[in-house]
Design a protein that fits this description.
By secondary structure, the chain is mainly alpha-helical. The protein is built from 2 helices and no strands.
């Protein structure tokens, strides 16, 4: 793994640690939690595809 990839992974884990508690506390109902989780999944997938297309 390159240093750049390691730093990116550490940054993403830090952001997740900051966002996750608030995300879980605001989604106390399972329906709302699943809706928000699916929205975040779509956002992450779009970002991954964009990064993949830029690097290619």
């Amino acid at each position: 793994m390159e240093t750049n990839q390691i730093m990116s992974a550490i940054f993403l884990i830090a952001v997740l640690a900051l966002v996750l508690p608030g995300f879980l506390s605001s989604n106390n109902k399972i329906k709302q939690f699943m809706k928000n989780l699916s929205i975040w999944s779509i956002i992450v997938l779009v970002i991954i595809v964009i990064i993949y297309l830029i690097k290619k």
